[in-house]
Automatic annotation (TrEMBL):
Family listed: Belongs to the D-alanine--D-alanine ligase family.
Pathway: Cell wall biogenesis; peptidoglycan biosynthesis
Binding-site positions, Mg(2+) 1: 258, 271
Lineage of origin: Bacteria, Pseudomonadati, Pseudomonadota, Gammaproteobacteria, sulfur-oxidizing symbionts
Entry keyword Manganese: yes
EC number: 6.3.2.4
Descriptive protein name: D-alanine--D-alanine ligase
Species whose genome carries this gene: Bathymodiolus thermophilus thioautotrophic gill symbiont
Record GO terms (molecular function): ATP binding; D-alanine-D-alanine ligase activity; metal ion binding
GO annotation, cellular component aspect: cytosol
Domain ATP-grasp: 111-304
Role this protein plays: Cell wall formation.
Length: 305
């Protein structure tokens, strides 16, 4: 009788699963990290969880490991900081490098790079805390966002100019710069990227005003559709735009690109995520499942890239 050996990374003997962090997305990161840890452990891979709390990295360096699986969402984990710390110690890790992560985390920088490559974007302006508000020459409604937060944290929809100040005040709780962009009414879609390929498009529907933090992680009435309802041609167009958007940001291995498609069937890029969620509500595992990849297989593909 042939004895099956447990699945192991191709060359990684011990994996550190980095989770937690001190960003507004800490709760989600802990859930993601636990899921990734269990998937690795259940395949016979030597691994350990490390709850980074912002000031305890010395405890991580004291443990020997070959590669870090980064599941830190938001600041510190997605903005290049933890990547730079690992690079400084010549330690391997999953996902995009420090420079690309820093660019992708900044919504303003991302939009600037995408604009240079003529990718589809809604018009926008930047507002600095304490500074004058530039003239806004695109129509209401507007989306107001802190430029360095994920998971839709700090985002407001402004339907009347009188509500702009309140929306900026909320955004400035998270950052000293806010992005004000034209709100595009339409359907929301997301494209996951894995190892150089775009996975099937997922359409997201929520009963809330938009796909906010509550819709993403707590609501039970958020709906996900795959097949996404688009024609094959339109789905392939979104996938092609997503791949270009991912590539020009120098992102690597895995990530997610979010879109709005308006009533005229025109797509608009929203943002890029370089450390997407890996929870039961998360979209990358959902897209992977659509092509027959289990969660365990997905985790291996990310760690082995």
């Amino acid at each position: 009788m042939q004895i099956q050996t447990p699945a192991k990374p191709l060359k990684w003997q011990k994996v550190a699963v980095l989770m937690g962090g001190n960003s507004a997305e800490r709760e989600v990161s802990l859930n993601s990290g636990n899921a990734v840890y269990e998937a690795l452990k259940n395949q016979g891979i030597q691994c350990f969880k490390f709850d980074w709390q912002g000031d305890n990295l010395e405890q991580l360096w004291q443990q020997k490991f070959d590669k870090a699986f980064i599941v830190l969402h938001g600041r510190g984990g997605e903005d290049g900081y933890i990547q730079q710390q690992l690079e400084n110690r010549q330690l391997a890790y999953t996902g995009s490098n420090a420079s690309a992560s820093e660019q992708c985390m900044n919504k303003a920088t991302t939009k600037t790079i995408w604009a240079k490559h003529n990718l589809p974007l809604s018009p926008s302006i930047l507002v600095k805390m304490g500074g004058d508000i530039p003239k806004i020459d695109f129509p209401l409604p507007w989306a107001v966002k802190p430029i360095l937060e994920g998971s839709s944290i700090g985002i407001s929809k402004v339907n009347h100019i009188d509500a702009l100040e309140k929306a900026l005040t909320l955004a400035f709780k998270y950052d000293n710069t806010a992005l004000v962009e034209q709100w595009i009414e339409g359907n929301e879609y997301t494209v996951s990227i894995l190892n150089g390929k775009a996975l099937p498009v997922i359409q997201i529907k929520t009963e809330r005003k938009f796909y906010d933090y509550e819709s993403k992680y707590h609501a039970n009435d958020t709906q996900y559709f795959h097949p996404c309802g688009l024609s094959n041609t339109d789905e392939q167009q979104l996938q092609a735009i997503a791949m270009q958007a991912f590539t020009v940001m120098n992102a690597k291995t895995w990530g997610r690109i979010d879109f709005i498609v308006d009533k005229n069937n025109s797509p608009y890029l929203l943002e890029i995520n370089t450390v997407p969620g890996m929870t039961s509500h998360s979209l990358v595992p959902m897209a992977a499942k659509a092509i027959g990849l289990s969660f365990k297989q997905l985790v291996l593909k990310i760690i082995n890239d």
